[in-house]
Design a protein that fits this description.
504 residues, alpha/beta, Protocatechuate 4,5-dioxygenase, Chain B, Glycoprotein, Type 4 Pilin, Dna Ligase, domain 1, 3 domains, ten-stranded mixed beta sheet, four-stranded antiparallel beta sheet, 14 helices
């Protein structure tokens, strides 16, 4: 740990030098001015290999992600990695590492300078020991040019750590290229945060990810921190900005020894909450909590709290399944195929022994893969049969009726992995921009021709919307690449609860 110069690095928040009459200047030079790492060698290792190894250890301990729900945002700590790295990894581990994001917005609060509004880094990329991460310059400059509340001044970013420390986690975890927009807040005014949220609203879409950088309580004793941090985190989960601010304000009114704040970068958090407060299909989830006292380098009498939280897209499917029920459906699909391929009949199972969820009616697809390659996939959209029975029928169909493949042989079944997608009802749309890649499946119908792609196809392929629709129209519906744009073509979307035997 030679890179740890001062163990007190976790005491890094609330160091603000008020400034006035600050002027923002947009750099118009064509030459990129990349932002060099400011805290490599102190907050985290400056060596590529050492940093890579450290992150691998943290992610190995991270809790499993919820694969049925899409992550829209993360709240992650920004202290030295020896104190908060495990919690940060827990936050980022909730994201599908194979997902392709259009842009990742990283929002942090300034620790050294106060200034009006927010500063959007818009003149270059970010460098870490793991390499260069490109800035989405088009989006960054558009935000600055179109919103008075957003500007740019390089001085505020130069030595600020709150955004920088998040980037190596993204570099390590995400398997596909990504671009970022770094937004540094200099305000501590809730009305200004609301205006920033309004400016960011067009960017708050399912194809983007928001990362909020904040620690929680500062400097109380260990037990007080645990209690205080839980109260603030519970307020975030409520999705009510007023309740959140009340929890933060109450922390400063308790006169608890050494308690300076309940959430050091609350402006960044409330900015996100202003984006989510009226969204009934979004829910915050507490992933992991620790404080600096849990680190071998920390003390118990003065600690800093760290929370990992995720913002999840709620399933609009009325049915939910426990892990046990998912496994039961997978076992049912396999047993059904075994019996059908051997004895040529679909087995009858006693429905009375099944849970209410398994007897609920819903459409479903069953997908078969062999050595990672598609081996069969057939489904039914109409919710006209109980889920368990639908899965049985689609499992048999996927094994024997997919015209693209030969019938599965009984000995072959042991080498096949099963994936089940339970579907929401079809919803007709007229604007394809409403399609959320990785969340929505698409069903295209033109005359007697039709075709569909399940939601996971966009994630697996990394296709953009044009490619997703073009491939579905041409390769599945057989109406040509541009067929989906025709006036007589109907487009439907749906969502799915997806689970399989081989979980990545």
């Amino acid at each position: 740990m030679r890179w740890v110069t001062v163990w007190l690095l976790f005491f890094s928040c609330n160091i603000i030098k008020p400034q006035s009459n600050t002027t923002f200047a947009m750099n118009t030079q064509d030459t990129l001015q990349n932002r060099a790492p400011a805290v490599a060698g102190s907050f985290y290792p400056s060596s590529h290999d050492e940093l890579q190894q450290m992150l691998s250890i943290y992610f190995a301990k991270a809790p499993a992600r919820e694969k049925d729900r899409e992550v829209r945002a993360l709240i992650s700590p920004h202290a030295g990695y020896v104190f908060s790295g495990e919690v940060a990894a827990a936050a980022f581990s909730q994201v599908d590492p194979q997902k392709s994001y259009k842009t990742i917005f990283i929002i942090g609060s300034s620790h050294r300078n106060a200034f009006p509004g927010a500063s959007v880094y818009s003149i270059g990329n970010f460098i870490t020991p793991l390499g260069i991460v490109n800035t989405d310059l088009e989006t960054a400059r558009k935000l600055v040019n179109e919103n008075k509340i957003l500007a740019f001044d390089p001085q505020y970013h130069r030595s600020e750590h709150s955004i920088e420390v998040q980037i190596p986690f993204l570099q390590y975890w995400l398997k596909k290229d990504f671009k970022i927009v770094a937004i540094l807040l200099g305000t501590q005014d809730t009305a200004t945060c609301a205006k920033i949220a309004e400016a960011l609203k067009p960017c708050f879409t399912p194809d983007n990810l928001f990362v909020i950088s904040t620690d929680f309580s500062h400097y109380p004793g260990y037990n007080v921190a645990v209690k205080t941090d839980k109260l603030v985190a519970d307020a975030i989960v409520s999705n009510d900005p007023r309740e959140f601010m009340l929890s933060v304000e109450n922390c400063t009114k308790t006169h608890t020894a050494n308690l300076a704040t309940g959430c050091c970068s609350w402006p960044s958090v409330i900015t996100l909450m202003y984006l989510t407060e009226k969204a009934t299909d979004l829910a915050y989830k507490q992933v992991l909590y620790k404080n600096s006292g849990d680190s071998p380098y920390g003390e118990k009498d003065r600690v800093v709290g760290y929370y990992a939280l995720s913002l999840l897209q709620q399933n609009i499917l009325s049915i939910t399944f426990t892990e046990a029920e998912k496994q039961q459906l997978l076992q049912l699909a396999r047993k059904t195929m075994q019996i059908y391929l051997d004895k040529h009949h679909v087995p009858v199972f006693e429905a009375d022994t099944l849970s209410t969820a398994l007897k609920s009616k819903a459409g479903a697809f069953v997908t078969l893969k062999k050595n990672g390659n598609l081996r069969g996939c057939i489904g039914h959209f109409e919710a006209d049969k109980p889920v368990y029975n639908m899965v049985q029928q689609m499992a048999v169909a996927a094994a024997t009726q997919d015209y693209r493949f030969e019938t599965v042989a009984l000995p072959e079944l042991d080498s096949i992995d099963i994936e089940i997608s339970v579907l929401t009802p079809l919803q007709k749309i007229t604007d394809v921009n409403k399609i959320r890649l990785g969340i929505d499946g698409v069903y295209i119908r033109k005359g007697s021709r039709s075709g569909t792609f399940l939601p996971q196809v966009a994630t697996d392929t990394g296709w953009n919307l044009e490619e997703f629709m073009g491939h579905c129209a041409r390769d599945k519906a057989g109406i040509g690449w541009e067929g989906w744009k025709e006036k007589d073509c109907e487009i439907f979307i749906y969502q799915a609860i997806i689970f399989g035997e081989k979980e990545e």
